[in-house]
Every structure is written in C-alpha cells, then in structure tokens.
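Title: Comparing notes on inverse folding

I've been comparing how different people in this forum approach sequence design from structure. To keep things fair, I'm posting one structure and asking everyone to reply with a full sequence. Here's the target:
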C-alpha cells in the first residue's frame, strides 16, 4: 500500500479507485461541489448506476460549501440526486465495497488540490448494519431533486445576507419531521418577534426543526429559505408524491408514507391540511386549489 493511498490530505485517491470498477455507486455527503464530484464521475464507468444523497441548505450554498449545480452533472450521467436537510454522513458505496469517514465531496475534502483538509476514509462492509440502516433511512425520507428544487435553493441562497448569518442554527435532528402548526404565515411574525410569547413558544419548535438562521432581513428571503428546506427530506417527498392527487388520495398516500416510518397519524385529513398549507405558502411551484386542500404542480 502506497503512502499516497492513505494520505489524509488526499482521501480522493481511494474514492477514485472505488469508482473505477463500480457497476453502481452511491455517494452520501452533506457537502458536494461540482469541483469535488467531477473527478469521481470521470473515473466512474459510463454504464454505472449513480445515486447521490446530499443536502442543500441555502446558507451553506451561499457560503460555497454545497453546489446545487451538481444536479446537472448527475442528470447527465443518468443518475439521481436525493435531498435530506440533516444528512451528515460521508459514505461511498460501490458493489461490495464501502468507504466511510469524514471527507465531503469537495476539492478540499478529497484533496484534489494540495494541501487538502486532513480527512479519513476507511474501508467498511456494505452489509454492516449501520450502513444498511443508513441507506434504508435515506431512501425512505429523502426527496428526489429536480431542476425546480435546484433553482429554488439557489434563489434562496442569493436572497440571504451572508454577513448577517453567523448565528445560523442547527436543525432539529428529526429525519421524519413534519410541521404541525396550521397557519404557516405566522412563522415570519414569530421569527421577527412580532407575536406574543405564548404563540412564540408554540411555533418556535417549527423554526428550530427547519434550522432557520438568524439575520434574514425580509419576508421574501425568509419564505424562500423555508421553502428550500421543505423541498428536502420527508416533507419534500410528501410534496412530490401527494400533489396532483385528490384530497382523499393525498391523505391516503400520506398515511402510507407515515406508516412506513412508524408515524401514527390520528387525523389524516388534518395533517394533510397542515402540510398542504405549508407547501402552498412556501413552495411557489405548488398551488392549492381554491376551496380545498388539493395541491397541483
């Protein structure tokens, strides 16, 4: 084994070796850039399957840590990008081999340009229960990224005031979080301290779950940020799978998705009403049919 093979500042060498013989490659990382991903795709055989799991939080995109333009690279290879707003694992899976560690899919993380960050990727079995559980969870609670999602996240990132976001919050670590407050228009008023403490205490968990950073200066930018997060993960999957259905069918599909996650739904109609209100308010490419809770896209 060469020293380069295990150089902590060139973890990408091991990833390229893994990709070069892959018939199917799965990449999981919170931060992926086009510069980080391109060398891997160059090494990957043209007929290999490709699945990518990542997150596109607008503040991280604005800072350059993540790049939604990876969607174009992956789509060109016939692959799929799936989004989960709290994913933090760094995993590379190919055939019967896996690499697990700290390296994100960035030039710095994989060491494409020296000196890279000091990282580690170690071999693991794809049958390890921790890995199989991780992949199963991501498959169940991630949304498939679309061009509309890419554009919405980029717009939300552009609307942020970068110098005012030092106090960005960590989102609540709920892989299957769903909103519960019925009037999403109140979120901005609570965020800006314009509502009474009793309501603030009730709504604050919603903001915490979304991980909205401090310092957003106007309601349009706030709505864009919230919408970008709702597009990802379990809420994004529900939006994709339950829109363009009748209200009854949407509620039935919602129950199916929740049951698969062992989430008890006492009132499917009410839960769908809440979700439809949030989706219609914060995701402008989804519209609520007047007089009901049916969503069309």
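Reply #1:
Here's my take.
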């Amino acid at each position: 084994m060469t020293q380069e093979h295990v150089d902590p500042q060139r973890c990408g060498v091991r990833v390229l070796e893994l990709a070069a013989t892959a018939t199917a490659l799965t990449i999981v990382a919170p931060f992926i850039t086009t510069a980080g991903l391109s060398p891997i795709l160059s090494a990957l055989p043209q007929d290999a399957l490709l699945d990518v799991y990542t997150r596109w939080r607008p503040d991280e995109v604005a800072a350059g840590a993540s790049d939604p333009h990876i969607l174009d690279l992956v789509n060109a290879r016939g692959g799929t990008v799936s989004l989960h707003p709290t994913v933090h694992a760094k995993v590379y899976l190919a055939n019967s081999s896996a690499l697990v560690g700290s390296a994100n899919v960035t030039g710095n993380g994989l060491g494409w340009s020296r000196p890279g960050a000091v990282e580690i990727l170690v071999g693991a079995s794809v049958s390890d229960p921790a890995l199989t559980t991780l992949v199963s969870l991501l498959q169940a609670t991630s949304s498939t990224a679309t061009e509309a999602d890419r554009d919405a996240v980029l717009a939300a990132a552009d609307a942020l005031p970068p110098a005012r976001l030092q106090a960005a919050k960590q989102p609540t670590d709920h892989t299957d979080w769903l909103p519960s407050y019925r009037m999403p228009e109140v979120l901005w008023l609570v965020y800006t301290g314009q509502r009474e403490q009793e309501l603030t205490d009730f709504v604050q968990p919603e903001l915490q779950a979304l991980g909205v950073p401090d310092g957003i200066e106007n309601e349009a930018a706030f709505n864009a940020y919230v919408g970008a997060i709702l597009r990802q993960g379990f809420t994004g999957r529900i939006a994709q799978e339950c829109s363009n259905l009748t209200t009854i069918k949407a509620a039935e599909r919602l129950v199916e998705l929740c049951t698969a996650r062992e989430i008890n739904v006492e009132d499917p109609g009410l839960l769908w009403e809440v979700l439809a209100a949030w989706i219609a308010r914060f995701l402008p490419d989804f519209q609520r049919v007047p007089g009901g809770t049916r969503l069309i896209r």
